[in-house]
């Protein structure tokens, strides 16, 4: 293990890390490293945890993510985090070749663009996928429906378009779903009502229309927030809203809702 989290180390990441033959944890997070990530980190095949988050790595350039190409060699990799840096470019399709043992993939708060590779659906043991606050565009891949163990999905703050696919309702273990601040269209899929463990649902600031599905407003598991604000939803608030007995925050502001406030509130 080599951990230097939360210091002021700077400069580039030494290529010599690959000489540590039994390195299984490399945590360089919360420092001020700059430059490119060494492309040969994949030579450390025993890596279980690689944490590069909250540095100044990358240069918003197309080659910034080339280090990912060697990581499929790390067949034991369970946690990969590189959020909060300056990485640009598109996600390579080879990201699908990462270890099927991968449990966390966190790459938010960068400048990553392009479409989300459909191949991410092959990472079937993920329980957390964070891609928030990037420049990602296009639809949410249907292949996400294969991520049956996923509990946290964070896609907010991108430029994603298309509909909220009903396939997301297949991810029944979801507890936190962030889709806000995108360009998603169409209606809210009622299939999200299948996510009986959902504590947080944030789909604010999109282009959603139609009515609020009863299947969602009636989810008793929602306990943190249900945020549907800044869309074009219409119709009344479903009377099933009274089932949200444990909700901490409900926001339906800036829509086109009408009618009476249900007495169940």
A few lines on this structure:
This protein is mainly β and 265 residues long.
Label this structure with key terms.
23% strand; 265 residues; 2 domains; Leucine-rich repeat, LRR (right-handed beta-alpha superhelix); 4-stranded parallel β-sheet; 21 strands; 2% helix; LRR-RLK; mainly beta; 11-stranded parallel β-sheet
Top-tier CATH class of the largest domain: Alpha Beta
Count of DSSP H/I helices = 1
CATH fold call of the largest domain? Leucine-rich repeat, LRR (right-handed beta-alpha superhelix)
Strand order of the largest sheet: 1-3-5-7-8-10-12-14-16-18-20
Helix/strand-derived class?
A: mainly beta
Q: Tell me which CATH architecture of the largest domain applies here.
A: Alpha-Beta Horseshoe
Identify low-pLDDT runs.
none
DSSP strand content: 15-25%
Order of helices and strands: EEEEEEEEEEEEEEEEEHEEEE
Q: Number of folding domains?
A: 2
What level of helicity do the residues show? under 10%
How many strand units?
21
| Mean pLDDT value | 94
- Spatial extent as radius of gyration: 20 Å
Please tell me what the overall shape is: elongated
Distance between the termini: 52 Å
Largest sheet entry? 11 strands, parallel
Please name the fourth-level CATH homologous superfamily of the largest domain. Answer: Ribonuclease Inhibitor
Structure, explained:
With 265 residues, the protein is mostly beta strands. It folds into two domains: 1-132, Leucine-rich repeat, LRR (right-handed beta-alpha superhelix) (Alpha-Beta Horseshoe); 162-264, Leucine-rich repeat, LRR (right-handed beta-alpha superhelix), CATH 3.80.10.10. The chain is built from one helix and 21 strands. It has one helix spanning 214-217, and strands spanning 2-3, 10-11, 25-27, 32-35, 49-51, 56-57, 79-81, 104-106, 113-115, 128-130, 135-138, 152-154, 159-160, 176-178, 185-186, 200-202, 207-210, 225-227, 232-235, 249-251, 256-257. The strands form four sheets. An eleven-stranded parallel beta sheet has the order 1-3-5-7-8-10-12-14-16-18-20, with no helix packed on it. It has a four-stranded parallel beta sheet with strand order 15-17-19-21, with no helix packed on it. The protein has a three-stranded parallel beta sheet with strand order 2-4-6, with no helix packed on it.
């Amino acid at each position: 293990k080599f951990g230097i989290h939360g210091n002021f180390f700077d400069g580039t990441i030494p290529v010599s890390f690959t000489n540590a033959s039994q390195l299984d944890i490399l945590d360089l997070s919360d420092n001020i490293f700059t430059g490119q990530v060494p492309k040969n980190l994949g030579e450390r095949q025993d890596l279980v945890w690689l944490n590069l988050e909250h540095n100044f790595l990358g240069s918003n350039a197309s080659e910034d993510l080339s280090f990912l190409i060697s990581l499929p060699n790390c067949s034991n990799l369970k946690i990969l985090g590189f959020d909060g840096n300056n990485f640009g470019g598109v996600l390579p399709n080879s990201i699908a070749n990462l270890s099927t043992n991968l449990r966390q993939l966190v790459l938010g708060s960068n400048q990553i663009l392009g479409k989300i590779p459909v191949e991410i659906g092959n990472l079937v043991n993920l329980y957390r996928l964070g891609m928030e606050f990037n420049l990602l565009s296009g639809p949410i891949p249907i292949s996400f429906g294969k991520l049956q163990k996923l509990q946290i999905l964070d896609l907010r703050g991108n430029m994603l378009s298309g509909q909220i696919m009903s396939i997301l309702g297949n991810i029944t273990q979801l507890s936190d779903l962030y889709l806000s601040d995108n360009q998603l269209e169409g209606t809210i899929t009622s299939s999200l009502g299948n996510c009986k463990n959902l504590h947080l649902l944030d789909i604010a600031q999109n282009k959603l229309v139609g009515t609020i599905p009863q299947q969602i407003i009636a989810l008793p598991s929602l306990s943190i927030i249900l945020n549907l604000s800044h869309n074009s939803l219409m119709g009344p608030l479903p009377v099933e809203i009274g089932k949200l007995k444990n909700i901490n925050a409900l926001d339906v502001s800036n829509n086109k809702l009408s009618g009476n406030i249900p007495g169940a509130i």
